[in-house]
Amino acid sequence: MRNLLVTGGAGFIGSNLTLELQRRYPNSRIIVLDDFRSGDFQNLRGFRGDFIAGDISRSDWASRLRGHAFDAIFHEASITDTTEHNQLLQCHDNIEGFRRVLEFAAPNRIPIVYATSAATYGIASGIQSEEQGLLPANVYAFTKVQLENLARDHTRHDSGWKIIGLRYFNVYGPGEAHKKSAASMIYQLYRQIRDGKAPRVFRGGEHRRDFVYVKDVVNLTIRALSAPASDVFNCGSGHSFSFNEVIEVLNKCTGSTRPTEYFENPYSFYQPHTEANMNKAERVFGFKPEWEPARGIADYVGWLSKG
Predict the structure, then answer these.
(1) Is 187 known to be catalytic?
(2) What would the pLDDT profile of 41-60 be if each residue is shown by its tens digit?
(3) Among 93, 192, 201, 229, which is 20 to 30 Å from 306 by CA?
(4) Hey, which CATH number is domain 181-210+239-275+292-306, 3.20.20.150, 3.40.50.620, 3.90.25.10, 3.40.50.720?
C-alpha cells in the first residue's frame, strides 16, 4: 500500500476514503483524480498527496501516470446524480471512465475496488442479496450494471486479477453537503429541522431505506482489497430504517418538536423498502457494519453541529 490511486477522490465517498487511506498509511503516496463535477476541494482539506484535475473518461490522465506502479486503485469517479437522464452522457462518462481504468490497470494487474450501486437491484422491495437478478430502473443504475459486466469480462480472461465491486446503498455522512439536492435525505431533513422548518416526507413516512454511514462504507471499501478473488458485495448497514425513524432521531439530537409535514408521493415506482443482506461481506471479510442507523445519524448530527 505504498502507491494508491483514488478516482473521484474529491467527491463525498471518495474524499472520506482518501483521507482515511492517508491516516492508515501515512507513508504511502496517494494520487487523486477528479474533475469536481460531483466533488469539492474543501472535502480534501489536510490532503498531503498529489492531485490530477481531469475527466477520467476524456482527458489523457493515463499518460501522466505512465510508469507509476500502483498497489491498488479505488475507482469512485462517476456521475452520481441519479436524476441526470441524459443517457449518452451517463453511459459515456460512467462506462468509458471505468473502461479506461481497466485498460490502465490491466498490464500490471493492479487490484481495483470500484463503486457500483444498490440501484442495480431495481425497484423490487425487501432484502437485497448479491445472487438475485439485476433490474436497473434508470440509466444511472444501467451504467453500474455495465461496470459489473466489464469487470466480470476482464477477470474471466485473467482469473488472477482482482477486481472488487461494492454495491453502495443509501450512504450519508460528512462531506456530502456540496451535493445539495442530491445529498442524502438524512442531510436534507437535518437542514430543514436546523432551519426551523417542518421535516417533509412522503405521506405516511414509512418508506424504509438501508441508510449506511460513510465510515462503514470506507472501512469495507478498504477491506475489500483482501478479497480472495474478484467478486461483488453489498455495502449497507444491514438495517432498514423508515423516514419517520430518521426524523425521530434527528428531533432527539436537535431538540426539535416541530411536527412532520407529509405530502403525496408523486412516484408510482417509489421503493417502499431497501435493505442490504450483509452475510456475504461478513463471511468473506468478517465485516460487520459498526454504525446502525440511529447511532450513525447521531454521530453525523454531532459532526454537522460543529460546522
Answers:
(1) no
(2) 999 999 999 999 999 999 89
(3) 201
(4) 3.90.25.10
